[in-house]
Design brief:
heterodimer; A: 505 residues; alpha+beta; six-stranded mixed sheet; 39% helix; 16% strand; B: 384 residues; Cytochrome Bc1 Complex, Chain A, domain 1; 11 helices
């Protein structure tokens, strides 16, 4: 190691800042040599011998520092488009996220995958730009534009240096507001999707995700794959994708979220110019349906002959994003399987060595989403891993010792600031609140919300939401070598199913 | 007897002769006996491993590895029970001619009191022992071989104090062994490999030897990778994925590391299309690049996208720390980011054409990954 002296830190910080400045100045040009702006180095400070720590003892932590999150400026355009602006001036970057409050839950039977296909087509042609022209401008401007449909929401996101904001925003607004859904592009994406669906058969984790959702949610929302299946992919017509777009892409069903090196007034002026003419529409509420009540704990086995690993998805229907139990559930789940030192990971990975990682989580959506505990497990330990999963799900219902609870709460509180580091990070956190109408100051109360969770509450939610007698256990693996041992665990009946959760031979 | 002959070979290899070593005359000249290893009980046979260590049998039923400087390993596990009496026991050992790839060995032993002998085939397990891991750790995971970059919301003096408190007590490790010197050689001749896997679709991999990081051709090769498969308008993506729709995906990487580098192109054909078809199309596009070069617009897209990525890498504290450490390690200058970014602005269309000719025009490794039982999909020649 070369001697690292204090003055280097100063020089590096200055150099990084000047790099950023130079990158803006030089953006989209090919000439000009970088200005020399490296700060003069102050004299190094002499080092004195200092005491060293006892590394066998962890340091004592003080109280977490108060986190002041940046203000959100909220405005509404006359056509109902909500505008949220967060200033973040460290780097000359900005993220513009159009959040449309509808997604794959609007897919109709027989046409599953329409929302994601429509959204993918936004970048494949507008009324004035074709697919290759869009891609050419995106690369030339050095910007990224993403368009994705998930559950409950669709987002179109622009990540751009602010140096060429005019050009970048006009491309972004064109993609969001004037899609052409060209038939040739629809056919190309259809073919692409059918090939991807073929490749899904190679991937046990993806097979497990699909089977689990189908078994837990059935024909209710969240039960089908967002990208549909072969039959639905073949059935979707141009009129279907256009209907999704025309119905749900309406300003009164959308929020434009802007984070970065921008000013609210300037953003509002640009938003009015680009999105002011967007017409309101009547947006029908989505029919979420009602998942069937879970039966007794059952093992659903999907055969993947010769698989070296078994994919586990264990769980059932959980809670919605607006659950009053958000904080106790977050703490309880983090202790169970939401961090590296959680019980599931410690047991199945660190102690037993069955897997590279085991985890759990509640997907909180508009209506209750799934609770899932998962791992990819070495085939020979499939039965042993199931026994350990069950042991941990039962044990968390007993009690969480005070030390463990405190460690878990601290972990959640201290990792919060890192989620707000970058323009994309801030935008992502806020975009997660918008579809559910969660107040935008939610994260200002997060540290206290976590702090208030007691042992009794953590135990209550574990007992309320984790029922070891009503679990759907999906395991994708080599049936020949694991079926008998799974039966021998007597955890539940073993039912052999296919990728869509239907009974198979 | 065997053992003595073998020791003679060791002697020839090491050339170490001590004055006290006994000497015997022979028709081939004087033989000098030099003790390489001690402590073996009835050592019977020996086979040299490719790395110069020796696999040695002891007649009572043990097999050990003897290091070049004579240290004995513990007895290897997995050796069958032998009946050792008189001249019986664990006897000869030999390596398979393909030992380097299959680690197969053969040995013979007596397994009953009637004098019956068996020949056994076995695989020598990989011998990365816990001790090797510890040695690596002690040698390289040491403060004199490490740098810490700390970036964040703190007072500089308080962090210096914390670093002093927690890191200064970690003892320095041994001197770091000299780094290997690598002279980058192109792949000597076109090489064709096939790998069967449990997959639905085959995949074609092309790989060339390229340059180490910050070599003068490194940035032009990065631009070449972008122009070949970096965006929707790139040569391979536009032709194979977008226009013809015969491939599901394409990618190209210039993977330059500290000692050396490689360049790769990977193509997954769509169902109904073959790796050989892909090879032909890739080679057509590479030929166009070598004759016509790239356009100004292609260069601008690559450079502008690259510039935006430089900015993005500075967005988070971890990103900043990674950049400081990366540049310090690779270039010796922690704040080299600006010079690095400038390399990409200097790249010209001629540079890109030149590196495509001089690196991708050389012999390459062609690997075809095929679904089980579909060996006929292997690309077996330079397809033009």
């Amino acid at each position: 190691m070369r001697p690292r002296r204090a003055y280097r830190v100063t020089r590096n910080a200055a150099a990084l800042a000047s790099l950023a400045a130079w990158l803006i100045a030089a953006a989209c040009s090919h000439s000009g040599s970088p200005p020399s702006t490296t700060a003069a180095a102050p004299a190094p400070t002499p080092t004195t011998a200092a005491p060293t720590a006892d590394l066998t003892k962890p340091p004592v932590l003080g109280a977490p520092k108060a986190l002041t999150l940046p203000d959100v400026v909220a405005r509404t355009l006359p056509n109902g488009l909500r505008l949220l602006v967060v200033e973040q001036h460290e780097l000359p970057l900005a993220d513009f996220v159009l959040v449309v409050k509808s997604g794959g839950e609007t897919d109709e039977p027989g046409k599953l995958g329409t929302a994601t296909l429509a959204t993918s087509l936004l970048k494949e042609g507008t009324t004035t730009r074709n697919s290759l022209q869009i891609a050419d401008q995106e690369a030339f401007l050095g910007v990224d534009i993403f368009a994705n449909s998930g559950w409950d929401a669709t987002t179109v996101q622009l990540h751009t240096p602010t140096a060429q904001l005019d050009s970048a925003l006009s491309l972004f607004a064109d993609i969001a507001l004037h899609p052409a859904f060209p038939p040739a592009e629809l056919e190309r994406l259809r073919k692409n999707r059918l090939t991807s669906l073929l490749q899904v058969k190679d991937r046990a984790p993806e097979i497990a995700n699909r089977a689990f959702a189908a078994i837990v949610f059935g024909s209710a929302a969240y039960g089908h794959p967002l990208t549909g299946d072969e039959a639905s992919t073949n059935a979707i017509q141009q009129a279907d994708v256009r209907r999704f777009y025309d119905t749900y892409f309406r300003p009164n069903n959308a929020t434009l979220l802007v984070v970065g090196d921008v000013k609210p007034d300037d953003v509002e002026r640009r938003a009015r110019a680009l999105f002011g003419g967007w017409e309101r529409g009547t947006v029908p509420p989505a029919n979420y349906g009602q998942p069937a009540t879970g039966k007794g704990t059952t093992i659903y086995l999907v055969d993947k002959p010769g698989a070296a690993q078994s994919s586990f998805r264990i769980g059932g229907v959980g809670v919605s994003r607006t659950t009053p139990d958000y904080f106790p559930l977050t703490v309880m789940n983090t202790a169970l399987g939401g961090s590296f030192t959680s019980r599931l990971n410690q047991n199945l990975r660190e102690t037993k060595g069955y897997t590279y990682g085991a985890s759990s989580g509640f997907a909180m959506r508009r209506t209750p989403g799934p609770f899932i505990a998962s791992a990819e497990v070495v085939a020979a330990k499939t039965d042993s891993a199931l026994i350990e999963f069950m042991k941990e799900i039962r044990a968390i219902r007993d009690t969480i010792p005070r030390d463990e609870l405190e460690k878990t709460k601290r972990y959640l509180q201290l990792q919060l600031p890192g989620r707000f580091e970058t323009t994309g990070g801030i935008a992502g956190q806020l975009a997660g609140l918008v579809p559910y109408d969660v107040p935008l100051d939610f994260y200002n109360g997060y540290t206290q919300g976590i702090a208030a969770v007691t042992q009794a509450e953590a135990q209550r939610v574990a007992r309320q939401y984790l029922d070891p007698d009503k679990l759907a256990i999906v395991i994708v693996g080599d049936r020949k070598s694991i079926e008998a041992t799974l039966k021998a665990t007597k955890v539940g009946d073993v039912v052999v199913v296919d990728i869509a959760g239907r009974p198979a031979m | 007897m065997r053992l003595i002959v073998a020791l003679g070979l060791v002697l020839a290899a090491t050339g170490a002769v001590r004055a006290a070593d006994p000497t015997f005359p022979s028709s081939a000249g004087n033989l000098v006996v030099h003790t390489v290893a001690q402590g073996l009980s009835h050592p019977w046979a020996l086979a040299f491993l490719p790395d110069g260590r020796m696999l040695v049998t002891e007649r009572p039923g043990r097999m050990r590895i003897v290091s070049r400087d004579g240290n004995l390993s513990r007895p290897l596990s997995g050796v069958p029970d032998v009946v050792a009496r008189g001249q019986a026991g664990l006897l000869d050992v030999a390596l398979d001619r393909d030992f380097a790839t299959n680690r197969t060995i053969y040995f013979c032993f007596n397994f009953d009191s009637g004098g019956n002998a068996a020949v056994a085939r076995a695989q020598l397990a990989s011998d990365t022992a816990l001790e090797d891991v510890k040695t690596f750790f002690r040698t390289y995971y040491a403060p004199n071989n490490a740098t810490i970059a700390i970036v964040g919301d703190f007072q500089r003096d308080s962090v210096k104090r914390l670093v002093q408190l927690y890191f200064s007590g970690i003892p320095r490790g041994p001197a770091i062994p000299p780094r290997p010197q690598v002279t980058s050689q192109p792949v000597p001749k076109d090489t064709f490999l096939v790998l069967e896997d449990k997959v639905q679709l085959p995949r074609l991999y092309y790989a060339w030897r390229a340059v180490k990081a910050f070599h003068e051709d490194d940035a032009p090769l990065d631009v070449a990778a972008y122009v070949i498969a970096g965006d929707k308008n790139s040569r391979l993506y536009k032709r194979l994925v977008y226009d013809m729709q015969v491939a599901q995906d394409v990618s190209a990487f210039n993977n330059s590391q500290r000692l050396d580098g490689g360049f790769q192109i990977v193509v997954t054909p769509k169902p109904g299309h073959t790796p050989t078809e892909m090879a032909k199309l890739v080679n057509e596009e590479l030929r166009k690049l070598t004759t016509d070069g790239i356009t100004d617009r292609e260069l601008a897209r690559a450079q502008n996208s690259t510039r935006a990525q430089f900015l993005d890498r500075l967005a988070s504290d971890l990103g900043k720390a990674d950049q400081l450490n990366f540049y310090n390690y690779f270039s010796g200058t922690p704040d080299y980011a600006r010079q690095d970014a400038a390399r990409y602005d200097k790249v010209t269309v001629d540079d890109v054409k030149r590196v495509v000719v001089s690196y991708l025009g050389k012999p390459r490794v062609t690997l075809t990954v095929v679904p089980e039982g579909k060996h006929d999909l292997m690309v077996t020649g330079v397809v033009q």
